[in-house]
Amino acid sequence: MRKGIFVTFCLLLILGFIGPTSDAGAAAYFHDVSTTHRAAKEINYLAQGKIVQGSLSGYFYPSKYVTRAEAAAIIGRTLNFNGTQRATSFKDVGKGNFASGYIQEAAEKNIINGYKDGTFRPEQLVTRGEMALLINRAYSFGGNTTSQAIHQLMDKGIAQGFTNGTFGQDQPIIRADFAVFVARAINPKFRINYELTAIQQATVNASALNVRQGPSTNFDTVAVLKKGQKVDVLHIVGSWAYVRASGIEGFVHTAYLSGISSSNPTNQLLQYLKTQTIIIDPGHGAHDPGAVANGLKEKDINLSVALKVKSLFQDTGFNIALTRESDVFVSLSDRVNFAKKMNGNVFVSIHTNAGGGTGTETYYYSAAATNPYVEKSKKLAQCIQKRLVEAWNAADRGVKKGNLHVLRENNMPAVLVELGFIDRKEDAAKLGSSYWQGKAAKAIYLGILDYYASESGLNFQPLYDRVQ
Ligand SMILES: [Zn+2]
Q: SLH domain location, by residue (predicted)?
């Protein structure tokens, strides 16, 4: 055992992993990051946690630009991803890529995405805007667009932007700056004028719990907590919690805390939502108007309601995609192919009825042979139908089985709603009204939330609150 450690130590010396120490005796890990370097604190902090690495000869290259592969590795290490090199789902990232394990896990967790052509482009430089999004996704700060993500970083004391008031979102980011942002994101002590408040309380359930400077056992222990001690949880990084207890602040593993979910409820919900893609399918389009009556065309109503549903889901954390966003023709098979390509998790087709009835009905496909999600489809149909009937005070024609292409050929919970009858005066008055279309869109939004709340067991209150 001891011999093994000694051999490892010598090997590390030979390989140059153990860097020089400065005159002052403070840990310095890299020849080119002196203790007076503006980012020395943050770089050395991340080096202590083995989150950033230098060259074999002990250089960090603080002014070099960060590639996408390096960014995935650095972020992945903060979250204790298994970095073992392996095959990935990207055609340009082989098992031989040093970051392949991190890239694959980060992609699976929707922290960093590939490109439509199936590449990841590991050598492409990361811009400051991309960095902001990456950090938001990795630590669930909630920003979904680049500008929201930048706003979150400013808000949390992680970024300040340039003195000219811009953030330089299109500029590539250098390693020193990336290290500063990541250190501030994971450890609030590095942030600028930022006071954390407790998000929940927890109790230590291990007999002696090491409190560490960072979110892994690579970091030094700063204190030890006793079993039964109460702590305030201030911040979560992966499976580690940043806690405060009687003057002590630092990271502990969440496995040793009772009364804590692995992340705070809001974070947990956001983590979940970003894995979910909702496909909205406005029926018909272009030369195919669908049903036509009372001066209305079905294709226009379907699209208008779909766009309203989209805007309700915008910025919730869910991914949302429409099979068409304008008056164009999309074949039934292309609608299904699009949903599959987008890795949709639910599919909602919006239509308008005709044929002399009145009221609302919702369809699902009931034979598992082609679309296995029969029970989930039925549940989704029931949730949306209930909300639509309430919203429009419409005749409830119920949830029905239907052998329809977009339901049958799909591979996700899929439903088709018929909002009302275009050839019935009373229904048409609502179908053609922006106000009532808005109510239908909100009902579809709420129906999808009802479905998800029951499927996931998570608290969707923040999303319900948005439309109250
Ligand atoms: Zn139709």
A: 26-85, 86-149
Q: Are residues 154 and 226 in the same domain?
A: no
Whether 268 is covered by a domain: the verdict is no
Measured in angstroms, how far is the CA atom of residue 366 from the centroid of ligand 1?
A: 20
Please tell me the total count of domains within the chain. Answer: 3
Give a yes or no: residue 269 inside a domain.
no
* 42 catalytic residue (yes or no): no
Q: What element of type H or E holds 363?
A: strand 360-364
What are the start-end ranges of the E strands in 95-238?
200-204, 208-212, 221-226, 230-237
CA 284 to ligand 1 center in whole angstroms: 6
What distance in angstroms lies between residue 354's CA and the mean position of ligand 1's atoms? 9
Residue 88 and residue 230 in one domain: no
Among 124-128, 140-144, 148-152, the range with the most confident prediction by mean pLDDT is 124-128
Give the distance (Å) from ligand 1 centre to CA of residue 353: 7
Say if residue 141's pLDDT is above 90. no
Domain boundary among 166, 190, 214: 190
Domain limits at 133?
2-190
Nearest to 305 by CA among 202, 219, 417: 417
What is the arithmetic mean of pLDDT over 183-195?
91
Say how many Å lie between the CA of residue 312 and the centre of ligand 1.
23
Question: What is the DSSP secondary-structure string of 46-84?
Answer: HHHTTSS---TTS---TTSBPBHHHHHHHHHHHTT----
CATH at 221: 2.30.30.40
Active-site residue among 298, 418, 426, 455? Answer: 418
